[in-house]
Amino acid sequence: MTADILSIPRAALHDQVAGRLRQMLVEGQIAPGAKLNERELSEVLEVSRTPLREAIKMLAAEGLVELLPNRGAIAVELTEDDVRHTFEVMAGLEGLSGELAAQRITDAELAEIQALHFEMMAAYTRSDLSAYYRLNALIHSAINAAAKNPVLTTTYTQVNARLQALRFRSNQDGEKWKNAMREHGAMVDALTARDAAAMRTVLIAHLVHKRDVVMEQLRTGPGTCSASA
Q1: DSSP letter at 5?
Q2: Which of 45, 67, 72, 95 is within CB 3.0–4.6 Å of 200 for a Cys-Cys bond?
Q3: 84 or 104: which carries more pLDDT confidence?
Q4: Largest CA distance in the chain
Q5: Check: CATH 3.40.50.360 for 13-75?
Q6: Which of helix, strand or coil describes residue 226?
Q7: Which residues lie closer than 8 Å to 215 by C-beta, 6 or more apart?
Q8: How far apart are alpha carbons 1 and 206 in whole angstroms?
């Protein structure tokens, strides 16, 4: 496992460590099914084991790692059925988020999403998948926030955590990445028009396409895949 050395401020240290570990899981720096080696991670992140263990507990609550008796923590693996079922729920949550956002979004929120979309287009143009994914996730979160439904947001966050790594990997194919960009353009158009029905339709289709890509990757690769896109 390799990762850039990261110096983390003391304030809210376990939150900072959790964020870095989450990124490592999403981007595949920690492989699905791999044991989280506390000694190695402490050295890489330059933190003691106490905040590291607190961060691991946070990620376990999110469903990204599994705590096993006498074995410590491992990066979660999802079966095909796990993936299919989770994407079914996530598509519904994304569709509802989009529908409500189109009805309730403010001009300021729309402008922020449009700005993030332009930044994401730039990341796509330079083939910067890490930056693209970060901006992509911010856009989906901003759409969910614009729906202004705290119960929806809580559920969305919990379910989405299981799919982040899969959504990240689904854009590594050039043509499928291009299709995802087109769908994001349609999202911005629907939001700008305040078209709730169109927004719901494009977001559900977007998740269905993601599911299909991920299922194809699972079937042509290892039988399971990491949790967390």
Answers
A1: -
A2: 95
A3: 104
A4: 55
A5: no
A6: strand
A7: 80, 83, 84
A8: 32
Long-range contacts (CB closer than 8 Å, 24 or more residues apart) made by 38-45: 38/72, 40/1, 44/1, 44/3, 44/5, 44/6, 45/6, 45/8, 45/17, 45/20, 45/21
Query: In the 8-state DSSP scheme, what is residue 194?
Result: T
Which ranges of the chain does DSSP label H, i.e. alpha helix?
Answer: 13-26, 38-45, 49-62, 80-104, 107-125, 129-146, 150-161, 164-169, 174-192, 196-220
Q: Which amino acid is at 48?
A: S
Write the pLDDT tens digit of every residue in 137-161: 999 999 999 999 999 999 998 888 8
pTM across the whole model: 0.73
The domains of the chain are located at 13-75, 80-226
Architecture of domain 80-226 in CATH? Up-down Bundle (1.20)
The DSSP code sequence of 126-185 is TT-HHHHHHHHHHHHHHHHHHT--HHHHHHHHHHHHTTHHHHHHTT-SHHHHHHHHHHHH
Place of tokens 């994001």: 184
